[in-house]
Amino acid sequence: MKNMGNAKSIFVIDDDVNIGNMLEEALIKEGYQVLRAYSGTEALFVLERKKPDLILLDLMLPGLDGRELLSEIEGIPVIVVSARDETEDKVSLLLKGAADYVTKPFDTKELLARIAVQLRNFSPSGKISLLEFSDVSLSADTHKATVCGLPVKLTKTEFAILKLLMSHPSQVITKSLLLEKISEDTPDCVESSLRVHVSNLRKKLRDAGGQDYIESVWGIGFKMKETEN
Prior knowledge:
By secondary structure, this protein is of the alpha/beta class. The protein has eight helices and twelve strands.
């Protein structure tokens, strides 16, 4: 077991006792402190008194369900852990503020890796300050991007696209979600120009790093591409 002195706290919200116990055991082995709740109502009660570093949230909860609970959570990264695997569900929850979405049954090592990424990238202010994926780094504070440590000059729209993709690196981001989210920063980007912006972004990253970092998912949207490194 790792040193618990300055351990991060993970709040597991799941009414399935067996899954909750398995998660708690795995998290403790990694050196995390663990909070538990078995319903949305109980979770809300706990959150009024404590602020964990990250939340693992099931959707199908008694009382207040996971979707309703998500809308009540601010300033804490939330990874949804659910048996529902429809793309529409994932998109909806990402829009409502979920940091990531993991489908049951899940690989424990992968979930632990995703937890580590969220904890590393989430700043105390509740905003993502630094995003990293393979050789690509993006600073939300300075609005600068680097590939292999070298600066890459991006337009405002390209930066907004990359930020959204890197915020959810394992998820396919639909074209409609991209347009809806980046329109907050770049209202000039419309469906007809989105592909051009993504194409230009991919080329800039590829020119700098020598490989593709973004991939198209036919008929759906785009996602970060698992690299060979």
